[in-house]
From TrEMBL:
<comment type="similarity">
    <text>Belongs to the shikimate kinase family.</text>
</comment>
<protein>
    <recommendedName>
        <fullName>Shikimate kinase</fullName>
        <ecNumber>2.7.1.71</ecNumber>
    </recommendedName>
</protein>
<keyword id="KW-0418">Kinase</keyword>
<keyword id="KW-0057">Aromatic amino acid biosynthesis</keyword>
<feature type="binding site">
    <location>
        <position position="153"/>
    </location>
    <ligand>
        <name>ATP</name>
    </ligand>
</feature>
<dbReference type="GO" id="GO:0005524">
    <property type="term" value="F:ATP binding"/>
</dbReference>
<comment type="pathway">
    <text>Metabolic intermediate biosynthesis; chorismate biosynthesis; chorismate from D-erythrose 4-phosphate and phosphoenolpyruvate: step 5/7.</text>
</comment>
<comment type="function">
    <text>Catalyzes the specific phosphorylation of the 3-hydroxyl group of shikimic acid using ATP as a cosubstrate.</text>
</comment>
<feature type="binding site">
    <location>
        <position position="57"/>
    </location>
    <ligand>
        <name>substrate</name>
    </ligand>
</feature>
<dbReference type="InterPro" id="IPR000623">
    <property type="entry name" value="Shikimate_kinase/TSH1"/>
</dbReference>
<feature type="binding site">
    <location>
        <position position="79"/>
    </location>
    <ligand>
        <name>substrate</name>
    </ligand>
</feature>
<feature type="binding site">
    <location>
        <position position="15"/>
    </location>
    <ligand>
        <name>Mg(2+)</name>
    </ligand>
</feature>
<dbReference type="GO" id="GO:0009423">
    <property type="term" value="P:chorismate biosynthetic process"/>
</dbReference>
<keyword id="KW-0963">Cytoplasm</keyword>
<dbReference type="InterPro" id="IPR031322">
    <property type="entry name" value="Shikimate/glucono_kinase"/>
</dbReference>
<comment type="subunit">
    <text>Monomer.</text>
</comment>
<dbReference type="Pfam" id="PF01202">
    <property type="entry name" value="SKI"/>
</dbReference>
Length: 172
């Protein structure tokens, strides 16, 4: 399989664990959100402000298509990447897909400190995260080769679990 792709909700640890996995595997690391920021020279909240969520999703779709065409990279996606059918097809075809699962409670704690997630600038971020997970959990599962729990486990343990389980996956 060509790439190793992380999907899952905000605060699951895709960006953190992707970076550690890439280091461990000595592969390049690409974070879809970071690549969009580098390419546009604007941060994600600014893009949401100026272009709306639709503008961001169009940029995200183009970036996912490009990154899934790479060979041998670890790719962290944004939590909403699975919302479009085109993205799910590209991600599934792009390599092994790992769904990093986190409970809503853990997501709330891990996302509380930074203001970089425009979708969480709501009166009740916990409800937002719960509603999004209800909608997206089946979509993450639809394309995942592996579902990995991240609650109550430090990033290093999550990385070791992924590496061990990847070796045991049957060919697709
Ligand atoms: N397994 C974990 N246990 C505790 N904290 C974590 C874990 N994974 C990530 N974090 C922390 O949660 C926050 C969000 O992680 P991040 O990698 O940005 O998530 P994502 O990219 O999935 O939104 C960061 O502060 C990170 O250090
Ligand atoms: O869940 C989402 O729709 C989003 C998740 C974010 O990425 P992380 O999952 O890395 O926080 C980022 O792409 C954007 O704020 C939208
Ligand atoms: Mg991220």
């Amino acid at each position: 399989m060509r790439n190793l792709i992380l999907v899952g909700p905000m605060g699951a640890g895709k960006s953190t664990i992707g970076r550690l996995l890439a280091k461990e595997l000595r592969l390049p690391f690409k974070d879809s959100d970071k690549e969009i920021e580098l390419r546009t020279g604007a941060n994600i909240p600014w893009i949401f402000d100026k272009e709306g969520e639709l503008g961001f999703r169009d940029r995200e779709q183009a970036m996912i298509a490009e990154l899934c065409g790479c060979d041998g990279v670890v790719l962290a996606t944004g939590g909403g990447a699975v919302m479009r059918d085109e993205n799910r097809r590209a991600l599934h075809a792009g390599g092994r897909v790992v769904y990093l699962h986190a409970s809503v409670e853990q997501q709330v704690g891990r996302t509380a400190r930074d203001r970089n997630r425009p979708l969480l600038r709501t009166a009740n971020p916990e409800k937002t995260l719960r509603d999004l997970l209800t909608l997206r959990d089946p979509l993450y599962r639809e394309i995942a080769d592996l579902v990995v729990e991240t609650d109550e486990r430090p990033p290093r343990m999550v990385v070791l679990d992924i590496l061990e389980r990847l070796h045991r996956l049957p060919p697709r």
